[in-house]
Design brief:
There is one protein chain. It is globular and about 65 Å long. It is built from six helices and nine strands. The termini are far apart. The strands form three sheets. The protein has a five-stranded mixed beta sheet, sandwiched between helices. It has a two-stranded antiparallel sheet with strand order 1-2. The chain has a two-stranded antiparallel ribbon with strand order 8-9. With about 220 residues, the protein is of the alpha+beta class. The mean pLDDT is about 90.
Amino acid sequence: SVEFDAAVIKERLEVASYLHKGVRIAFEDESTGEKAVFQHSEGLVDYLKKIVGERSATVVHEAPFALTRENDESGIRVDLVLQWTQSTDEHVRSYVNGIPTGSGGTHENGLRAGLGKAVRNYIDTHNLSPKGVTLIAEDIREGLTGVLSLFIEEPQFQGQTKDRLNNPELTSALDSAVRPALEHWLNHNRSVAEAIVGRIILSARAREASRAAQAEVTRKTAT
């Protein structure tokens, strides 16, 4: 229907206003007379606040981690915001040249690799490793909410829906961009970093307790 198409267009324009910080986008539906203006001076930071609010998530730290890397010799522009919450799942929205990549891809793989290394390095450097429990990647990312936006010259999309990025070079590019920046941010925001690490350790302990409980149920059932 016309209403549905207008709603989709309106939603896409709103997302575009977040991805292009400060740009003013005007929308008018001539069939209904509806008008709207989208403009967000904080770009992805504003988008992250909207997502966290929609998910009714309690944040672990108020100020999010934000990274902007302008186009360099590789022709890649990276915009990223991350914030840990008390939710039990990971929620990251990614875009390439404004196109949503709902199935992820090499850029998200690089993000997760760099994030994991940065957090582990911080924990090891400050002797914060918990006793009696081993941290895994899922513990580090539990409750993580974020938005990743890339602008690249030649994106290679995969699948019929074209919602997965397949550029192999972007895994290492995102890894090398995210790891040092996030580690620097953690080291210069110690109270925030300790709150994040505390959240991660709680996640690991809960996972271990759940596994132990499941093993006990299995043992009793077998008996």
